[in-house]
Design brief:
The structure holds 2 protein chains of 2 kinds.
Chain A (H helix, E strand, L loop, with lengths): L3 H28 L8 H8 L5 H14 L4 H13 L1 H13 L5 H8 L4 H36 L7 H20 L10 H30 L2 H10 L9 H17 L1 H9 L6 H18 L1 H11 L9 H8 L3 H43 L7 H29 L5 H12 L3 H9 L5 H24 L6 H6 L20 H23 L4 H11 L1 H4 L10 H15 L1 H14 L11 H15 L1 H12 L6 H76 L5 H33 L6 E5 H13 L7 E4 L7 E5 H18 L6 E9 L2 E8 L30 H11 L3 E4 L7 E7 L8
Parallel strand pairs in A: 2-4
Antiparallel strand pairs in A: 1-3, 4-5, 5-7, 6-7
Helix pairs in contact in A: 1-9, 2-9, 2-13, 3-14, 3-16, 4-11, 4-13, 6-7, 7-8, 7-16, 7-17, 7-18, 7-20, 8-16, 8-17, 9-13, 9-14, 9-16, 10-14, 11-18, 11-22, 12-16, 14-15, 15-16, 16-17, 18-20, 20-22, 25-26, 25-28, 27-28, 28-29, 29-30, 30-33, 31-32, 32-33
Chain B lengths: L3 E5 L3 H13 L3 E5 L5 H8 L3 E5 L7 H10 L8 E5 L4 H10 L3 E4 L4 H17 L1
Parallel strand pairs in B: 1-2, 1-3, 3-4, 4-5
Classes of the chains: A mainly alpha, B alpha/beta.
Amino acid sequence: MASLNVLVLVCLGYVALLFLVAFAADRLAATGRSTWLRSPLVYTLSLSIYCTAWTFYGAVGYAARSGLEFVTIYVGPTLVMIGWWWGLRKLVRVGRSQRVTSIADLISSRYGKSNTLAICVTILAVISVTPYIALQLQSITLSFSIFAEADPNNSYNEIASVFWVAAGLAVFAILFGTRNLDANERHHGVVTAVAIEAVVKLVALLAVGIFVVWGVAGGVGQTMARIDASEIGQWNIDRGRWATITFLAAAAFVCLPRMFQVMVVENDDERHLRTAAWAFPLYLLLMSLFVVPIAVVGLDLMPEGANPDLFVLTVPLSQGQQGLAMLSFLGGFSSATSMVIVAAMALSTMVSNHIVMPIWLSSRGTGASVSGDVRSIVLLSRRVSIAAIMALGYFYYRLSGGGAALAAIGLIAFAGIAQILPALVGGLFWRGATRTGALAGLTVGFVLWLYTLLLPGIGGEAMPANVMASGPFGLSWLRPQALFGIDGLDPMVHSVMWSLSLNAAAFCVVSLFGFPSPIERLQAAQFVNVFEHSAGPRGWVGSVAQSEDLMIMSQRILGAREAQVFFHAEAQRQGARGYLPEPTPKFLERLERELAGSVGAATAHAMIGQIVGGSSVSVEDLLAVADESAQLLEYSSRLEAKSDELGRTAHQLREANEKLTQISLQKDNFLSQVSHELRTPMTSIRAFSEILRDTEGLEPEEQTRYATIIHDEALRLTRLLDDLLDLSVLENGQVNLNMGEGLLTEVLDRAVSTAMTGASRDMRILRHVSDERIPVHSDLDRLTQVFINLIANARKYCDANTPELSIRVHEVGGKVVVDMVDNGSGIPRDSRKLVFEKFARVSAERAGGAGLGLAICREIMQRLGGDITYLNGHQGAAFRVSFPSGYQLAAQ
Amino acid sequence: MSRRVMLVEDEPNITEAIRFLLIRDGWEVETHADGTDAVEVISSAKPDLVILDVMLPGKSGMEILTDLRARDDLKGLPVLMLTARGQSRDRDMAEKAGVSRFMTKPFSNSEVLTAVRDLHAQATQT
């Protein structure tokens, strides 16, 4: 009997061989001389990771327990391969054209790049597949234990061995699954190793079968007789279970992450599917060929209570066939390891791409571009994910105690992963499917699966017995294995029926009532009509026609001359004459770079892709194009904003210039006015002084009169100069206010008496002295000046027969308001604004003033924090003077 | 032959001074202080010479001059213009409008008398 140590050595040797194979295959793939690696045979064999330890060991156990039902596990994938290979072809085409990296990526990509969906699928996959990985670990330790029992130096520790196996597989998966980041997520090393393992497990199972049939049972006839005698041979078919499990196996074959990995992601050429369509069912047939004989003979040979799951090992051992048992062990070991490695790889891609990286990127805040830095982070997160998934499997094994039959765990996993099916198939064939529909279906299916199958399967704390028996909160129609009162069904059938039908129903209903977003619609078209959108698997074939198209396109982008020069140079480089080079990959690459300089990399790629047709334009490409256009738009809008700004600046400058011109004009006018006002009295003075000097014999009265005119005009000049200086001081703000306190009535008294002295015309002043007893804090002299001005104006201009000036005072909101209204005909409406301007004289007649009085008043009132305005709505001229009454002056 | 002068000036003291000078020199002097109807007044009075202020209420001396020159009967009337806004721009404008002589205030009395005599002599010679 082989010692455990020998077994361990054989295992290590076998793993070392796989390492070598994987390493060699990777190297070969890297050098590009890997044609045989890309053969349909390797592809077909890699698909055999469908046959895990569950199939290798478990099928026999399954047959021993439930008769021929195990066949369903093989029938499902066979039906898919033969009857639905066109569907698989579509899946592969979509996967390749969209460059998907996992089933989660595919689903998310189909439904508008929804990462929420990707996370859902990832979580579902991890939860479904973890028990499955645990199952593989269990099978390895079980098989170890068979050899350990027979070993006299029994030092076998089951838990430790599971741990080391898990660790070893994690290392393998990390080494070959994450050696480098391939854009296409292809792993030639792993796939080749898986293919080798497929051969090993097939050979092992066939060898055991042949031994059993010819070595133990004694030939085909004898075996058939034994089978006929056994219960197993009876075709007692539970139709519901058969149909359900066949369907589940078919669904799992498509949806399992590891199957998706080898079937779609690792696919090199979709024509391989044609070979696989017949070769893989053949493989399955061979794998199942001897299951029943082994089970029947095992049941006969082995003692009562022996684990039928291990007949493949124990039957040869019991017959003393050490070598055969060892081969059988290696077969089982191969089944388990290949599954675990590929599953861990596929899951880690999903976990890393959809959960770890988004979190890392968002925690970084800024959008990191794909740099070397990010690549190493991606690899690290993949590796950590693989380790975490293996750890999950290990802990599930420890928790579940490894008791349940292999087949049961496998079926639970199948049912879980099958929840992806509606979203997947709907996504491939139904353009109306929406993201929310997929999300709803997945959620409903997942929850029901969890509640009706996984938790009852785990039992214990996860699903208390009273809930199982009478439903949660005593609601019997919610019993996990008899939902809505449908009782008596097989738990598996029950769960699959409810979860998948409600999943599909939720998916359809929500999809029908929702509207897909634009990107979803775009993706739907890309998926559903993938054969119209993408070229065949041959890759692009260069032709002169394409070169012409490229030339035309390039001329539009680069300009006719530049494009011709570029194409001519390229043609010469290829040794051809003329302007049309062959569209070799190198030429296309250079052209793309050339175009990228003008239209951006993504656009250039999409354009060339469209013409050459090698790779279809994916939504990512279109989005990248949109990004570039958005950038261009942003640039142009920035330019526009800049030009707007310049326009505004120009406008402001123009306005400032106009203002300056206006001010300059005003200054000219002012000087001209001043000149006029000064020259007029001077003219009189000069004329009359010359008359006095030159005229002989002037009458004394005449002399006196002319001297008086000279005197008056001299006074007028002085007044004018005083006013001008006053105004200038006020306008420049250099005035010193002489603040004082007094009663308003005193101020008005002073103003009236000053304004009326020496008046040629009399004017009645109407006052309400009682209202005027308002204390005022202001420059009282300036205030008096304003009132004098107004009263004097009234006196001068009021054209009534008996002129009257009414002075009314009131106080409003801390402001003193003084209204002065005369009973004349007032100031014409269109002149009212002008009266406060310098040199403004409204009436035709001269009244001795230069027209600066009101301008000065306005300046004074502004200095005093008040205002002077023309008061509309009166018959006569009406002015309103207002200023702060109290002690708070405008800070001027 | 007649020596009638029409003086259009709104500043009373200046009007009085010029009037005094011209009467002493033997001229008949009529005065008018408003620009608005100046052209009509001149047209009906038919003086031999006009002394015209520029800044007049109602209508500026420039406009009055332009109107005078636009009329056949007053085209050749000698016009002596006086202005207190001694800017070269005004002189240019006046000359364009067809002024006979342009003087800036304050003027010397003898200059005014000389100008009136010269203009009158020129007008009567032609």
